[in-house]
Amino acid sequence: MITETAQIIRPALAHALAEQILDHAIGQEKPEVIEQTFTEAGGKIIRVEGDEPACVEAFGICEYHTSEAYLAIYLWAERSFDSVSGMETKDPLKVFTSLHSDTKLDDLVRLLCALCDEGLGTFVPPQDHAHAPATHLFEIDFLGVHSTGFGEFEAARNWRKAAMATISESA
Length: 171
Hints:
Elements (H helix, E strand, L loop, with lengths): L1 H25 L4 H10 L3 E3 L7 E5 L2 E5 L3 H15 L8 H9 L4 H16 E4 L13 E5 L2 E5 L2 H19 L1
Antiparallel strand pairs: 1-2, 2-3, 4-5, 5-6
């Protein structure tokens, strides 16, 4: 279940990032802005000195260009659009919630933890400092939706409710 979900979510996340890159290109943003947007979303830029091509990678999609990283990012965005051409919906949150709206809480917790461990979000248990000022709650931040709960099950249930509400509000 985790692998299948990750394989479906990655192209949708790549598509969302590719749309941001395209917006920057249309707005004629500087290459630094395009590179910053790409890396802040988890993309990696590998610059090699000399005549070697620049390489960029994000969400399992890799692309090269002979001179500049931002040009490789444009090519990456084009390939990302191709990767979702057959998908009915490209919104990562809608894709995930449609797949897991009825998933049992223990399975949802495992899935969210695994996807967050892969770098697609954060799943933070309470800190082990009983006397330190903190919320002492489990926190989940995944696909732009943040939730908390006294236990991991409550945090996952709250995340699912917040995700469904977010989708309803955007409809």
